[in-house]
Each structure stands twice: as structure tokens, then as C-alpha cells.
Amino acid sequence: MKEIDLTSGSIFKKLIKFSLPMIVGNFLQQIYNLADTLIVGKYIGANALASVGSVYTLMTFITSIIIGLCMGSGAFFSLDYGAKNHKRLKEDIVLSFIFILSVSAIISIVIYPCMGIILSILQTPSTLMALTKEYVTVIFSGIIFIFLYNFFAYLLRSIGKPYVPLVFLGISSVLNIILDIWFVVSLNKGVFGAGFATVISQGVAGIGLLIYSIIKVPIVRIQKEKVDLSFKRFREIVINDLATSVQQSVMNFGILMIQGLVNSFGEVIMASFAAAVKIDTLAYMPSQEFGNAYSLFISQNYGAKKSDRIKNGTKISFIVSAIFCLVVSAIIFIFAESLMGIFVESFEKEIIIEGAKYLRIEGAMYVGIGILFLWYGYFRGVNKPLISLILTIISLGTRVVLSYALAPTTPLGVIAIWLSIPIGWILADVVGYFYYRKNKL
């Protein structure tokens, strides 16, 4: 597949062409959990749905650590590629692979002994503890596959090959649906079967992309010439990757804290939140991936020292993202109940009503998070990941503080949690604009 060079040609066309496979790829990645949620909710019941939904936020947090590290390295890869520095690119690939593989292995070793404590902190109800542990036991065995897929996906995207990860993810997503139906519906394996189907599918995507990269991407292969592995460069990669990873994981840690507060409101709110979050994630996912594509656009042109192209690309990206988010907000607001009905049986009226409330309150302000994803991408692309971290802390900190201050003690109740989310987005957007003006190229 032909590489896409983001440093020349029509900015709008290149951004759309580059972001589309990333958007479709993220959509397929969401299918892993969507398939679990849909099949578990329809064939096992509301308790199983609540259990899987609760673990989803935990798994997202753990996964975000690895994805953040890979994303940080991807920015380095893209800078090297834009600067045509292939020797440095080879060195960065090797050093990043060693570092992120080590972190993934440590997470895999540590997570299981701490699982009981983590589920208790999340206020998992005792009636759901057995189901939740059963699901989480198998789902976390796929961490190494998550590393492999994301590392090589970000590498291939950084060198202009966004379609390859999409192909492997498409195959594994279809496989996941087939295995979900087989294990849960045909073999009656419950939540364990749903988790096992996901891990097998993740393995196909991760190992498949590893094999493809070794065969088709010469710079990945181990060759006879010596690769300089300097400690100074390793330190730079670690600092950059950790900053990006902390930004991603802080974002999801805040969501994890919200999950604990949501759990305290009972099983109906848990189930409605589990289903609504899936819809929510799919709704603003295209703007998130557009922000990631924009980040790679920024980093390639930053490496190539094309500041005018960066300025023009920034203007175009903000207009495109804002229009998209406004359209999606309107759709979510109008069809909230119908969308909830995809994941919840029609007789579960209370769950549908509560989920629709969440979607209408938060979904009305998707433009806030669409802009925030672009700020994340911009500062990551110009090698200032700490600013992205600051924006995340502002956004999530606002959400957590307002939720815990208002939800348990005021008549707003759980509505306070839903309102705090867009408030956090808007505050972070304002600060992001301030930093942009201050650090403008």
C-alpha cells in the first residue's frame, strides 16, 4: 500500500485520507467491547452487562497506559520520518520497543494480585463481584497483544501506512463477533466466554501486525549493520512516552474514578452508564482519531520545518472537527432512547431512560471534546506532551471534583456527574487556546 506523505499536497485531502482508516480502525476496535456488551446484555442479563461495563472502564485505563506509550513513540517516529532521518528512526523503533514491552510485561505481572483491591476501590457491588472477577481474569491476559498491535499500528501510521492496521483490525473484529456468539450463545460460557473471544481476537491483530511489519517494512527487520542505541536517546524517549502515557492514563483514571462514583448509585445506573458510554465513545471517536491524524500531520511537518503548512492545517482541522461534532450532537440528542435500545432490552425502561439522560446532557457538547482532542494532538506533534497532560488534568480534575462534590450531597444526584463532563472540556479548551497563542510557531 502506497505511503501518504503529509508534508506536501492538499492539506484537507491528505488529512481526510489519512484520518479515515484511523477512524474506521478505532470503530472496529470498539467492536471488541461493543460485541461483548451487546451479546452479554441480550443473552446473559443486566447483571452481566453491569459487570462487563464496570471492567470496561478499568480495562480502558490499563490499555491507555500502553496506548499512550505507543502514541508518544509514534510522534518520535513521525518526526524522524518527516526529517528523512532513517538512521534515527531505526534507533527509536528499537529503543521504544524494548521500553514499552518491559512496561507491558510489568503490568501483566502486577495486575492480578491487586485485582481484588481494585474492584473494591471501584465499589463493585457484592452481588456482581463473582461475575466481574470471572470476566476480568481472562480479559487481562491479552495485554501483550494490545501492546503488539498498538506499537506497530502507530509505527505504520507514522510512516504513512494507515491502512495496514485497519486490515488486521477488521479481520480480528469479525473474528471477535463470531467467537462471542459461539462461546456465549452456543456454548453458554457466559462472561468468561465473552472475554476469551476478545483475547483471541486481540492476539490475531497483534501477532498479525508484528509478522506483517517484519516482512514488509525493511526498517523493522534486524539487519547486519549496527544500530546505535544511546542512553541519552533512550532517556528522551522514556520522558516523552511517559508524558503522553500519563496524559492518556490520567484521562482514563479520571473516568475510572467516575465509574466508582457511578457504581455507588446502584445497578440500574451502572447498567445505563455501561451502555451509554459505548454509544458516547462511538459518537465522538471520529473526532478523536481525526485529532490523532492531525497530530501526525503536525509532527511530520514539524520535523520537515514547514510552519506555514502547520498553521493552515490547524485552521482547517478545527473547522472540520467543530462541524462534525455539532452534527453528531444533534443526532445523539434526537435518537438517545433508540440508541440505548441497541444494548438494552425494551422492557428495561428505567435503564434506557437513565442512559438517555446521560447522552442528552453530555452529547450536546461534543464540540468541546472535539476541540480538546485537537489541542492534545497539536502539543504532542510539536513535542510538548506536558501541555497535553496539563489540559487533561484540568478537564478530568474538573469532572472528578464537581462530581464528588455535588452528586452525593445535592438534589442533582447522578445528573451532577453528567454535567461536570462538558464543563471540564470547555475549561481545558480555553487553557489550550492560551498555550497555543503563547507557544505559536
Describe the structure.
The chain is mainly alpha-helical and 441 residues long. The chain has one domain. It is built from 16 helices and no strands. The chain has helices at residues 11-43, 46-82, 86-111, 115-121, 126-139, 143-158, 163-186, 190-216, 231-263, 267-303, 307-334, 336-340, 349-363, 366-381, 385-406, 415-438. The longest helix has 37 residues, at 46-82. 53% of the residues are buried.
Care to give the gist of this entry?
This protein has helices at residues 11-43, 46-82, 86-111, 115-121, 126-139, 143-158, 163-186, 190-216, 231-263, 267-303, 307-334, 336-340, 349-363, 366-381, 385-406, 415-438. With 441 residues, it is an all-alpha fold.
Helix coverage percent: over 70%
What count of domains describes the coordinates? 1
Sheet of most strands: none
Question: Helix- and strand-based class?
Answer: mainly alpha
Query: Mind telling me the C-alpha Rg?
Result: 21 Å
The termini sit apart by 33 Å
Which shape, going by the Cα principal axes? globular
| Total E-strand runs | 0
Q: How many helices does DSSP assign?
A: 16
Estimated share of beta-strand residues: under 5%
Series of H and E elements: HHHHHHHHHHHHHHHH
Q: Report mean pLDDT, rounded to a whole number.
A: 85
Q: Indicate the low-confidence ranges by residue numbers.
A: none
Membrane topology: Multi-pass membrane protein
Function: Multidrug efflux pump.
Main location: membrane
Protein name: Probable multidrug resistance protein NorM
